């Protein structure tokens, strides 16, 4: 009960920080779009679009965080734990799309350069940088515990870096009239966004496709279980993640001929090994006595 209360308090605290960060990013997005249009800066507008994606990503993260708390039901027997993973995938995919759009706009601007108000560009970029830094501070702690929050945190991190780049570009334009630096910065920002988003897209797709957690070596799992005296064989294994830090395991266990009551200690020992050594917290075992003809380790469904 105390654990549930602690979890609820933690989710509420994270949700509050997300809401504050969403509001900050929407305000800065409006300011940067207006500033980018008036100054003629593409990199400032690209930074504004990135800020908008930050706000949307954190809004999605907030909804996912709330959905995660819902209990399981007949329609969703695992609950809605994968909402966070889906949110991480959507957020990162949006960033990839933004990167491609920025590349296109930068190429157009390279061939059709325009005069830019470096001073206004500089002022708006500094304001954007301040908002992003505040957002990063708010989400930094939670980013280490959730892929969902980490995807939002990465949005802010990349936008902070792009704001710094826009500030440097604004200085170069203001003092040296180097207008070509604006589309160049846009390309650099796009490459960085693409790089940071790719790993989250891959990881979230792996979970959504029910891939085995990368940190778990199935051969090691089989070897550890097989070391028990009562275990003859381990096969028909499924290992998958429903959400972060929520790994499920099921397998057929061939044991020596024994009563069902005698298999209980074996089950308890297997569950202990899986939890302590491999951090697997949901285990389903089917005990057999030379009854399964298919002895492949990995299940062939």
Terminal CA distance: 39 Å
- CATH architectural category of the largest domain: Up-down Bundle
The CATH topology of the largest domain: Alpha-lytic protease prodomain-like
Secondary structure: number of strands: 3
| Integer count of domains | 2
CATH homologous superfamily name of the largest domain? Cation efflux protein transmembrane domain
**Globular, elongated, flat, extended or rod-shaped: what is the shape?**
elongated
Quick description:
The chain is mainly α. It is built from 8 helices and 3 strands.
Helices and strands, with pairings:
Elements: H1 2-39, H2 42-68, H3 83-111, H4 118-143, H5 147-176, H6 181-208, H7 218-226, E1 231-243, E2 246-255, H8 260-278, E3 282-288
Parallel strand pairs: 2-3
Antiparallel strand pairs: 1-2
Describe the 3D structure.
- There is one protein chain.
- This protein is mainly alpha-helical.
- It has two domains: 2-208, Alpha-lytic protease prodomain-like (Up-down Bundle); 218-288, Cation efflux protein, cytoplasmic domain (Alpha-Beta Plaits, 2-Layer Sandwich).
- Helix content is 68%, strand content 10%.
- It has a three-stranded mixed beta sheet.
């Amino acid at each position: 009960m105390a654990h549930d209360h602690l979890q609820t308090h933690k989710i509420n605290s994270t949700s509050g920080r997300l809401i504050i960060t969403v509001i900050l990013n929407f305000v800065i997005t409006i300011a940067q779009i207006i500033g980018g249009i008036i100054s003629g800066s593409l990199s400032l507008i690209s930074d504004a679009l990135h800020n908008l994606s930050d706000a949307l990503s954190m809004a999605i993260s907030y909804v996912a965080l709330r959905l995660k708390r819902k209990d399981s039901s007949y329609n969703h027997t695992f609950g809605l734990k994968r909402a966070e993973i889906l949110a991480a995938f959507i957020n990162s995919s949006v960033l990839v799309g933004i990167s491609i759009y920025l590349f296109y706009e930068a190429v157009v601007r390279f061939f059709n350069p325009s005069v830019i108000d470096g001073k206004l560009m500089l002022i708006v970029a500094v304001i954007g940088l301040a908002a992003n830094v505040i957002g990063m501070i708010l989400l930094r702690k939670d980013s280490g515990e959730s892929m969902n929050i980490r995807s939002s945190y990465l949005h802010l991190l990349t936008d902070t870096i792009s704001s710094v780049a826009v500030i440097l570009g604004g200085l170069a334009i203001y003092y040296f009239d180097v207008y070509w630096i604006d589309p160049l910065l846009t390309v650099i920002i796009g490459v960085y966004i693409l790089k940071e988003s790719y790993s989250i897209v891959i990881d979230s797709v792996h979970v959504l496709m029910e891939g085995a957690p990368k940190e778990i070596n199935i051969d090691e799992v089989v070897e550890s279980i097989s070391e028990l005296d009562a275990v003859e064989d381990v096969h028909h294994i499924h290992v998958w993640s429903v959400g972060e830090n929520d790994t499920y395991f099921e397998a057929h266990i061939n044991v020596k001929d024994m009563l069902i009551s005698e298999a209980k200690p074996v089950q308890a020992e297997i569950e202990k090994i899986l939890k302590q050594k491999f951090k697997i917290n949901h285990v389903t075992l089917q005990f057999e006595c030379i009854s399964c003809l298919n002895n492949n380790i990995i299940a062939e469904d």
